[in-house]
Model the fold of this input.
Amino acid sequence: MDDEIIRRQMAGEFFDWLEIFTHLILLVLLCFTFVFRFVTVDGDSMAPTLRSGDHLCIQLLGCQAEAGDIVVLAPEGERGHLLIKRVIATGGQTVDIDFETHEVWVDGKLLEEPYLAEPTLLQADVHFPVTVPEGHLFVMGDNRNISLDSRNTGIGMPDARRVVGKALLRLSPSTGWID
Done:
């Protein structure tokens, strides 16, 4: 009789642990479906901040892109392809780039950009100054001279609704929060 009680207690304990484990797996799946996502950087347009092959954890929910944020964008018409860029300006702001002095100005204020690989030389086909339409973003790569970004009409100023998420954490090669 005592053996039977012990077996029932062990079975009950096993099913308690199984229930906890199942809930934990469901919670993790929900988090990585609706709250966080992992992406891999493809290309060096964000160097030295991010390099090709870096793995990022991005925030999906409650992601309101602001100037200075590194965002992951889903370009219109390009299924599966993602862009990773830094937000320079948001709707209603005016961007001006002086290609002689290599300075970027937003609303008449010079941007402090310690994250740049080198001075901004590549002009592309957008004429400055430009005002960002409401609900859109002006984005640029940190490696400005190889980055295809809002200075090019092919990318343009993406709709803010195209933001998939905001970069939070670099997981490799070195782990760290992204500023």
Q: What stands out?
A: DSSP finds one helix and eleven strands in the chain. The radius of gyration is 23 Å. The CA atoms of residues 113 and 142 lie 9 Å apart. The longest helix spans residues 2-34.
